Protein 1
Amino acid sequence: MSRRVAVVGAGSSGLVCMKCCLDEGLEPVCFESSDDIGGLWRFKENPEPDRASIYHSVIINTSKEMMCFSDFPIPAHFPNFMHNSLIMEYFRMYVNHFQLAKHIRFNVRKHRQASLSHKCGSSLQLTVSMCVADPRPEHKEEIRLFAFWSVGC
Ligand SMILES: Cc1cc2nc3c(=O)[nH]c(=O)nc-3n(C[C@H](O)[C@H](O)[C@H](O)COP(=O)(O)OP(=O)(O)OC[C@H]3O[C@@H](n4cnc5c(N)ncnc54)[C@H](O)[C@@H]3O)c2cc1C
């Protein structure tokens, strides 16, 4: 059985974290409190409580050569300093290319995690409890066991 890694947040950090897990033969399960990827870079007309928000015209101040994922170049026809909509487009290309979507659980907020508490064979596993924003009964509260967890937020 592959070792599962809890990744918290599907912003740029969480996305690359999932991809690195897959490279290492680990199984990422990403918990994203909102209903989409992108984190800070997903512009919303009506900002959500507790979430930082960019404004509509924001252009990133990091060049595409500096900010791109090292194994997934930003398309040549994208400008060097991208508008936030192109950053989101790039993130979606990354998710599609590495087939990350199936590993993401949306509308799930990591609420707390217990301390290392469970021994399974030779490895310690972590109990993660989550409080869920989504009303679906099967997602009300969930306790899962993970070998590791990583905060991508
Ligand atoms: C105002 C501002 C301007 C910036 N401008 C630039 C810039 O020009 N260039 C640059 O390179 N960087 C900039 N940054 C830095 C920015 O933080 C990074 O570019 C990038 O967004 C960090 O990605 P992240 O995945 O770590 O966090 P985020 O993009 O914040 O994503 C975190 C994700 O985790 C989710 N999440 C949070 N808590 C939980 C929880 N408890 N359970 C489940 N999910 C959760 C959130 O919904 C979100 O989707 C800026 C930051 C700010 C605040």
Note: The longest strand covers residues 108-120.
Protein 2
Amino acid sequence: MELVAVMKRALSPLYEEILQAYRNHLELLAVVGALYTAQKGLNVLCGCYRAIKFHISIRMFSKTFLARQYGGWAVVTGATDGIGKAYAEELASFGINIILISRNRDKLQTVSESIATTYGVKTSFIDADFNKGREVFPAIKEALKDVDVGILVNNAGVCYEYPQYVTDVPEDKIWEIINVNIAATTMMLHIVLPGMVQRKKGAIINVASASARIICPQLAIYGASKTYLDNLTEALYHEYSSKGIFIQSLTPVFVATNMIRPMCTFFKRTSILVPLAKDTAYKAVRTIGLCRRTTGSYSHSLQVRRSGSKVNNSGD
Ligand SMILES: NC(=O)c1ccc[n+]([C@@H]2O[C@H](COP(=O)([O-])OP(=O)(O)OC[C@H]3O[C@@H](n4cnc5c(N)ncnc54)[C@H](OP(=O)(O)O)[C@@H]3O)[C@@H](O)[C@H]2O)c1
């Protein structure tokens, strides 16, 4: 007890000193507090403004808006299935002519004809296997040389069939991810950007993934390839937005497509957590020009936020 009393007596001047210093700096602390609250308030207001602008724009979107804003032709890579096919159909529903790129000629022919008849737009296709690397791009460049590409959806992508440690991923799969997810996306925008810059308009959508924003053990190479895309997109935004080009990164979580089916039977069923590709494309197309990064669905935005993304400067 005596020890406590001695400690109290010894610490009392220190306590008084701290209290005095606190009183002296009270006003400064009040200013810091006010600035912090103001900054948080401003963030909330900006968020509300973005949300209102987003929803009004969705409702007021005229069907010819996209073509007028960016141009009448869109190129969609990986357009024969999943998210890419859904993008192609959604853009066609806005009256935009579509050039599809994928590997399989028969599938390209079928999807191309179906889009042309359903939406009454012009379509054509280029068959190219991005996994072949550099050799396929001169032909693509040649095929697109007289086309005023208004929108490029860089969608083609591959993943592992199931989660694996890096050392277990076959070499061929590693090169496929590098060739398709990284190299092809970069080359495609390298091909179409000069024309867009010349016309001072255009939009590029790079289909990344939530794995670009969340650390993904056992999908490390895939996740890293998508981080490349997401990072590239952000840098391109700064390089080209002043030249009239809109650049966007799409970062969905799980979408019910062939890509994720081998991983888990759970994903065969669609749910609020695992939307259909057409629902993702429906929402994503309506954010073109509005936000430079979107997951394409509210539930995915919540999932990415809940998991704590490694970067957070999105517009979604
Ligand atoms: N599904 C998801 O949960 C999810 C989530 C986040 C991000 N993503 C991303 O979304 C994009 C589309 O994925 P998805 O789920 O729609 O996949 P998907 O259903 O498997 O479709 C992939 C498309 O890419 C084409 N493709 C594949 N390899 C190609 C190659 N070597 N050369 C040219 N085209 C090739 C395929 O066409 P052919 O086979 O006919 O050639 C197909 O049209 C990918 O970039 C993926 O990483 C998907």
Note: The radius of gyration is 25 Å.
